[in-house]
## 1
Amino acid sequence: MHNDIGTPGSIFNARTNGAHPRLLSVDTLVGNEVYNLQGDDLGGIKDLMLDIHTGQVAYAVLSFGGFFGMGEKLFAVPWNALKLDATEKRFTLNADKTKLKNAPGFDKTAWPDMADRTWGQQIHSYYGTKHYSETLR
């Protein structure tokens, strides 16, 4: 279920005087919608994966497809592939629906080992981003 804009838990309740918020709680991010640059709904943020050694958000887990949670597919999207669109009050991902449908995904009962460096490189390569550990240097 997606958060409604302006309800508790929405990132857009933050008092930022029109600026992008810099610090947000996980509760304000989970449930927010993700759209592509063409305006297609790509699903919502279901969870965030945090690297406990660096404190950096590594991946957003997106939920796409399905109906009331049945048949949905989950995708780990590099956090640095998502952009906050404060004007439209959502996140954007530079990927069309076909790219997301064909992306490496997983079932809610069988999550990949997101700490596996090889798996991470494949995901970052698919979305055209650098591995988050490379952006810390």
Note: The first helix runs from residue 26 to 29.
## 2
Amino acid sequence: MTRRAGQILLTLAVVAGALTGCARADGGAHADRANADRVNSDRVNSDRANSDSANSGRANTGRAGAGRAIPFELYTHCGIDEARIGSTYFEAETPLSDGSGNPPEGWGNPVQRGTMTLKSATEAVFTDDAGHEVRFRARPGADAPKRVCA
């Protein structure tokens, strides 16, 4: 009976470990995504403030000026599927992953540093020094990510 109980406890420990495989001591994926969103939001707001002061009289739109590239940390932990630019959620025209919910080979995890260029209010392009390029389209009315990555 004791051996059976030990096997059950071992099985439960393995299952619990597998289910929390993406968790990290520093807060895990949720903290990484929140940090990337905060950093990118700060950059967009800074860019907007600089653009507004240089172009007084223009409306404050809450996003970077069209055509302007800003440093950007693209959240990649569960693949490349969406990005938040300022307060707008954008989705990748062609989502990228390794087929198992991770970024493809050659991408950083949990983020990929590069630049985001807002082409218009509804189109953006992410590029980086590795040669990656991802095109995004705004999700009208979205106020949260499509899914929460664990």
Note: The chain is about 30% helix and 25% strand.
## 3
Amino acid sequence: MVPRSIGHSHIQPVLSTHQAVSARKPRVRGAFHIQNVNAYDSRLKTWMIRFHGVATKYLKNYLGWRRLLERYRELTP
């Protein structure tokens, strides 16, 4: 998820596909589990707080940076 200040029209170019996962049963759709989605959303929002807002123009870069950090956690101090 992205911060609420970002409109959905700006999200589409960043995300490749959208997977809706209901909070009701079933909570799993392939690799997407509601708890995984919520955990990622929480980590992303916590990480983005330090930037005091992100320009939509650079959102793709910030999400790529965060994806890199998530993928290679052992490399971060």
Note: Confidence is low (pLDDT under 50) at residues 6-15.
